[in-house]
Amino acid sequence: xxxxxxxxRGELLGIAAEVFAEQGYNATTVREIADAAGMLAGSLYYxxxxxxxxxxxxxxxxxxxxxxxxxxxxxxxLGPRETIEALVTASFREIDRxxxxxxxxxxxxxxxxxxxxxxxxxxxxxxxERAWLGTLERGLAGGSxxxxxxxRLTYRFxxxxxxxxxxxxxxxxxxxxxxxxxxxxxxxxxxxxPRPS
Amino acid sequence: xxxxxxxxRGELLGIAAEVFAEQGYNATTVREIADAAGMLAGSLYYxxxxxxxxxxxxxxxxxxxxxxxxxxxxxxxLGPRETIEALVTASFREIDRxxxxxxxxxxxxxxxxxxxxxxxxxxxxxxxERAWLGTLERGLAGGSxxxxxxxRLTYRFxxxxxxxxxxxxxxxxxxxxxxxxxxxxxxxxxxxxPRPS
Amino acid sequence: xxxxxxxxRGELLGIAAEVFAEQGYNATTVREIADAAGMLAGSLYYxxxxxxxxxxxxxxxxxxxxxxxxxxxxxxxLGPRETIEALVTASFREIDRxxxxxxxxxxxxxxxxxxxxxxxxxxxxxxxERAWLGTLERGLAGGSxxxxxxxRLTYRFxxxxxxxxxxxxxxxxxxxxxxxxxxxxxxxxxxxxPRPS
Amino acid sequence: xxxxxxxxRGELLGIAAEVFAEQGYNATTVREIADAAGMLAGSLYYxxxxxxxxxxxxxxxxxxxxxxxxxxxxxxxLGPRETIEALVTASFREIDRxxxxxxxxxxxxxxxxxxxxxxxxxxxxxxxERAWLGTLERGLAGGSxxxxxxxRLTYRFxxxxxxxxxxxxxxxxxxxxxxxxxxxxxxxxxxxxPRPS
DNA sequence: CATGAATGAGTATTCATTCAT
DNA sequence: AATGAATGAATACTCATTCAT
Lengths: 197, 197, 197, 197
What we know:
Four copies of one chain form a homotetramer. Chain A is mainly alpha-helical. The first copy, chain A, has one domain: Tetracycline Repressor, domain 2 (Orthogonal Bundle), CATH 1.10.357.10. The first copy, chain A, has nine helices and no strands. Chain A has helices spanning 6-23, 30-37, 44-47, 51-75, 80-97, 99-112, 119-142, 151-163, 177-190. In chain A, α1 packs across α2, α4 runs antiparallel to α5 and α4 (51-75) runs parallel beside α7 (119-142). Chain A is elongated, with a radius of gyration of 19 Å. At the A-B interface, α6, α8 and α9 of A face α6, α8 and α9 of B. The first copy, chain A, binds a DNA duplex through residues 2, 4-5, 8, 29-31, 39-43, 45-47, 50-52.
């Protein structure tokens, strides 16, 4: 009768996200989530409608936070290079805070996006692409980036390069998301061969 | 008229690989593979022991070919930069020829590698890492690469950069694997910002 | 077009009987029979209509031979004790010659007998019971057997005692069916405790 | 109202045992067990891991009880003849209480015993043989049994004689297991022909 | 809130059987 | 006579979900 406590829901979502990230959504049984939460499978249904709704909440929550960060960057009116740097940094910060959600997103988004319920994934991808492509084109026109770049290829290159890091990134004391972001950026922007001084 | 058994197996494996790549291994039902092959689910078992053995053959076949290419490169005695270039090019060529297998590998390898049957995946990963890390360290020592690189991070950067491309790369007339490889390499080696000439 | 050779059929039936006896009818696959015969599963269907028809032929053939022996004994006009001895001996002879068929019969007859196709099994059981019960009652009336015997119980006792031997009897040089029969008979007739001389 | 879990398991095992005994383990489908229990096939898996584990529990439970009885007899220090009598009586008592388990054991033990999971069946058979053979040999040496007995044959004779009764024995008011045991014993010990007084 | 027990739709797999060659 | 390939029905088992307590 009384509505489920939001705090408990949050805990449970965190647990579910970890298991989904570890094993994949399809390979994860509701029972495994319940085990990890110290309850029985059926009990999860007091808090959530379905396994799919857990996934939904995890992904939607992640995208909400991500776009909060991105929108701030895009609204700041930075130059193309600085925008790229800020977006990449924001992305690594998001990986740091929602690692499991990012990993789930990486693995499942493509197949989920075709379902009506997960239409917002496709929408987010479009916005994402628009933001990055726009910035790259602006930089190309202004000479911030090499003139011979294939913009779409470069977009994919940066996008994949950044997000795939979620599959191995584990937060520890040494590598803060900002440090990782700076190292990635130095490779993406300047490459791995030495520049002639 | 009807092709001999090994040819049929090959056909079926190709079909299965495409469906696995499209939907994920777990989310793919044997019935879907059979549908795609124009036969009934049970009929697949005349050719294969199990769904898992199909996956096994797909991945093992891919890794065999991949290592044939890599071993050739590594035995050629090239310099570090040329080795990286050749490895990346070999990888894109492999993506071109075994796109679905690469996509499956990307998505499933981590979870499969812990199973005894798929132990060769873990072994291949170790060899893979050794080859790349060794080359990078050699280049670092010899000045082919920037002295401030974090070798492990760079390894992951290049590795992911290349393989993730399998998730969107579709061969067409314009972008041969060699062309894609060259464009990627120019970004990885020299970055996306213009070099002061 | 040309009818299958009866000789080959006989061979195949013998092989099938052995596998059925070893593993049970249900647990035996047509493929296992074919393997044992050095052919492919489908090829058996040139010789037989179905797996069930193999079972049918095996059991019918065995019962035919068995009754040939029994009828001879029953028609001979022996006394009750001699009849029992002759029936037991005939049974052991049949076990010796059709061990697998007897083993199959023991294991499957009860469940098969309810099917119309195998109605002859039930019929045979009834005849069997009539022959044994009649002999025992004749012996009881004539004083050949102990007066305090429960005839039905004794019938089951002897029947089970004899036929179950098929589950372990293996023909070898030392124990001919006649020898085994004589030893059994001495136990059944005189018991295992010493008779006061 | 609803009985606690172990009781329900016991109920279900009893039902499964009856169906296995009636139709044979292989010929019994999980659905048939579920039907007999008034539930759906899948629901059985809430209580048991597999069809095989039901069989396992049934057989192990039966053997545990059987050996409880046998060990009591063997430890009592009776003479050979009294030991045989007590073992036979214990066996019929067990047939009375676990009729289906005994019938399953009779039909399936030979083929199951080779599987690692059912290794305890083979072990039990060895112990069983040791107990009976030892008793028979003791009796032979001490003159309780006829000097001309073939001990192994006699062992099989008695063993089969007793256990095969499970296939037809149905408890009713008139024939308690003790009564049946006494009648069997009188035949086994003294035979069916009259003794010269 | 949580449990225990069940449902029912699905899923991989098996296997007797068929049939063109 | 035998093969290779397929069919189709059945079967054990899984799992998300429901619900009375």
